[in-house]
Amino acid sequence: MAWADLHAFLAHLERRGQLRRVSAPVDPHLEVTEIVTRVVRDRGPALLFESPRGADMPLAINVFGTEERMAAALGVERLDEVGGRLAALLRPELPTGLSGLRDALGKAASLASVPPRRVRTAPCQDVVLKGSDVDLFRLPGVHAWPSDGGAFLNLGLTHTRHPETGARNLGMYRLQRHDARTVGMHWQIHKDSNAHHAVAERRGERLPVAIAFGCDPVVTYAASAPLPADIDEYLFAGYLRGERVEMVDCLSVPLRVPANAQIVLEGWLEPGERRPEGPFGDHTGFYTPVEPFPALHVDVMTMRRDPIFQTIVVGRPPQEDGPMGKATERIFLPLIRMMVPDIVDYDLPEAGVFHNCCIVSIDKRYPKHAQKVMNAIWGAGLLSLSKLIVVVDADCDVHDYTEVAWRAFGNVDYAHDLLTTIGPVDHLDHASYEQFWGGKVGVDATRKLPTEGYRRDGGWPEEIVMDDAVRAQVTRRWKEYGL
């Protein structure tokens, strides 16, 4: 199912008891965070604050706060369904026979039929504010944590174009509200929009930027997805939706934005201009320090007649971004397996904020196979930021942390089964001694082979496993035993 807009998805959640309206005035300064943090930890509903203090529009939050809601946002029952569709699309076999050719053409057609579609008018431009009428304080930006540098407009979908190639990028970056018409752009060194800005500055040019809030949930997710630079996020969103995304020309910048967005900010980045940004209580659970980042001057602000501002609280897990990260993990498994075919499955624990730890299972075939996979992961896109990799055998459920821990604690000789290296780490990593790079470790928790130096008599011991026939008998007679 493709949701027409944010309103439609919120109505769906409310019909199913998954949205709670809060009519009392709630303060976006710290109070929203405390409420949302409690609700997230109880796996509670999405929240619609109808009267946030100091703003003139409702605030939607915790919309993606459970895996069930995240799956519903993408129109599926389970997140793995999306990965299954993507796996079928990416399957590389050459077509054989008429049926194989038909299947290959069908895959190509499934992508070719969903590029974004331009429309002339759009709900996101029902209300137009220009120049001095622009007022970012109308938006209920959340000042989430006590030492934050101010209110942040999170979950904004940032649109840029490469100044030379014209390639579009859609990204999601934190946005600090500096004043009524200026927001800070915290995009990190490995982000495509940062690359667009760098090219514009080398050319001495301004960079046009458009930021959309409250888009349909698939488009919002697509902005956070770690797609390769040559894959258009709106083509990906159309594929996930099964329908083309309608887009409209901005009024003051040469960019297009989703027609069904709630609010859109349009403006320019002046070459060389930076403003202090932060501190910001981030998903690491620590504040990131003040650093200079570009500042967007907003010339035009457009919105629907009945806008809802959607945002997210970021902080120490668990938070709403957990299910979003889990969606990325499941959806991109087929792509990861194309880059590293040895991988059977993988898990990125939320407690590791999805890049500090990567658990992978492999069908081990030769000595030091686990170490080969570790090195491949450290060269695979954003997985290269992984600081800890734990490799287990294929019969281990990587999502069962007790099972993984049992193997990592018991199957490892730490004098022989660790691989240490140095490489890139996340911009936000506070533990690295130098920014952007630091130490990494891989743990080989697989069964060891004699050819790997394991020299005990009898080889690797047999694992204790109950007989299947006995297990089945007990299952049948469970009630008879009074248990």
Q: Briefly, what CATH class of the largest domain? A: Mainly Beta
Query: At the fourth CATH level, what is the homologous superfamily of the largest domain?
Result: Electron Transport, Fmn-binding Protein, Chain A
Count of discrete structural domains: 2
Shape: globular
Number of strands: 24
Q: Would you give the CATH topology of the largest domain?
A: Pnp Oxidase, Chain A
State the gist of this model.
The protein has 483 residues and is an alpha+beta fold.
Give an account of the 3D structure:
The protein has 483 residues and is an alpha+beta fold. It has 2 domains: 6-93 and 111-310, Pnp Oxidase, Chain A; 340-452, UbiD C-terminal domain-like (3-Layer(aba) Sandwich). The chain is 27% helix and 23% strand. It has 13 helices and 24 strands. The chain has helices spanning 6-15, 31-41, 67-73, 79-90, 97-112, 192-202, 217-224, 233-241, 321-331, 333-339, 369-377, 401-410, 468-477; strands at 19-22, 46-49, 59-61, 117-119, 127-130, 157-161, 168-172, 174-179, 182-186, 207-213, 246-249, 256-258, 263-269, 275-277, 280-281, 287-288, 291-293, 295-303, 309-310, 343-347, 357-362, 388-393, 418-424, 437-444. Strands 5, 6, 7, 8, 9, 10, 13 and 18 form an 8-stranded antiparallel sheet that branches. β11 (246-249) and β12 form a beta hairpin. The radius of gyration is 24 Å and the shape is globular.
